[in-house]
Amino acid sequence: MRKIVTLIALFVGCICCTVNAQDRVEDGVFTTQDTVYIPHEAIEQLGDTPTIFVLSKGEEFYRNKYVQMTYAGVPLLVTGLLSQQYVADRFRDLRYAYTPDFHCAADDYLQFAPGVAAVVMKACGVQSRSSWGRMITSDAFSVAIMAAVVNGLKYSVGTLRPDGSTHNSFPSGHTATAFTAAHILHKEYGELSPWISVGGYTVATFVGVSRILNNRHWISDVLAGAGIGILSTELGYFLADLIFKEKGLYDFGTPDFSIPESPSQVGLTMALQFPLSSIELGNGQRLISSTGSRMGVDGVWYINRNWGIGGSATVSNLPTVLESRPDEPMSIDAATVAAGVYGSLPMGDNSRFRVSMKALAGCNIMEHVELIPNAMTSDPTGFYYELGLSVSFLAQRHFAANIFCDYGGYTFSATHTALPEYGLYRTGRHDYMMHNLSAGITTSILF
Fold first, then answer.
1. What separation in angstroms does the CA of 222 have from each of 81, 172, 226, 267?
2. Looking at the DSSP assignment, which residues form a beta bridge with residue 102?
3. What global pTM score does this model have?
4. Do residues 36 and 54 make contact, with C-beta atoms less than 8 angstroms apart?
């Protein structure tokens, strides 16, 4: 009897929430215009009895069909367009610094792998979202839209490839194909298990990164290709849904969009690095760095909803010149490995936005120890620290995007040899401290 009374009270509270703009308290259920707050004791009384919830206006927005269609693809496409002029060169320098001779042909085949996985799973009898006819129609629309957009842009924009071979670099067709296939896999099987989606997007991301490492595409080409692939699939499925309506559609139930209490995550980081200091070499000479690039992985395991432990591993490239010889480019290339404490705080009740902080310490590893040929040789390792602030958006239960700003520094010792023709007269060993500011994005998988 108590369960029935409690259910009635909850139902009345939900109805009042949707029709009454005034906040009020009735029978222990606090309601507002946006949401319903159910007392803990009421949930205990219900036990396993189904409960009625009303979505807040914010949650209604995030679950809107058109928001779900565009929240991932549009930012990727816009970022790719905006990063063409300036950012692309910085990340090519990073590739030249660490993998100048890299070549891998796997991306030619892996671009199709998520799509093949979707078909094989369907053929093996694994229940998917769509019937065979509906899936084939959706996929045909998706691939046709992607191919038309990619080829239309390739031969109208005319961007020169980084290897100088042809003028059809933007956007990356391999990446667009891979993300189209991965998003098809997500549409068909993502509600069966989010880890199927994670696997597909991981393969697609590898394809995109491989295109950069193979020196066939700029990072802007890859970002835009990923966005086009996702948007093409969303539009392809939207058109098929208009044709088939409810026919041939399997209902997995309501997708889980809930927000994890402890948003542990691991993600891929891309950032621009801005030097805040120079290296004083004596006699009025300085080694000056300009804006560089940084990439790596970042992960954190949250012990509770606010505090966790984790770390990062990154590589960076800072273009550098001797002040007296600005026409002789050099660079400071370094890898960092660091671990420490992370903090996270939701921006409001049940908010998909979180503010996070971190404090890390670790090791800085120089890729090339000869900073100035025949004049300055660095020790290979030094102390590294990093303080960071980020804002995260939990797009779905297992996916998040983070915008971050990190302040970091590292120490290193260097051995100097006088080089009078460069105006360098310092000898012996000297200690240095470099400070940098990094700003960028991280795309993360939540677990």
1. 10, 5, 6, 17
2. none
3. 0.82
4. yes
7 belongs to a structural domain: yes
- At 35, the pLDDT band (50, 70, 90 cuts) reads very low
As a whole number, the mean pLDDT across the chain is 86
Q: Are residues 229 and 123 in the same domain?
A: yes
* Euclidean distance between CA atoms 404 and 332, whole angstroms: 23
Note the Cα 360 to chain centre separation in Å: 20
- Same structural domain, 231 and 117: yes
- Residue 5 pLDDT exceeds 80: no
- CA pseudo-torsion sign 411, 412, 413, 414: negative
**pLDDT at site 203:** 97
Question: In terms of residue numbers, what domain contains 48?
Answer: 2-54
Q: 144-163, pLDDT tens digit by residue?
A: 999 999 999 999 999 999 99
Dist. CA 152–CA 150, nearest whole Å: 5
Q: 286 and 146, same structural domain?
A: no
Number of domains in the chain: 3
If asked whether residues 49 and 71 sit together in one domain, one would say no
Rounded Cα gap, residues 58 and 64, in angstroms: 10
Q: What angle do CA 402, 403, 407 make, to 5 degrees?
A: 115
Specify the pLDDT at position 44.
Answer: 47
Are residues 218 and 77 both part of a single domain? yes
Residues 346 and 418 in one domain: yes
Two structure tokens written together for 386: 């990093």
434 in the same domain as 380:
yes
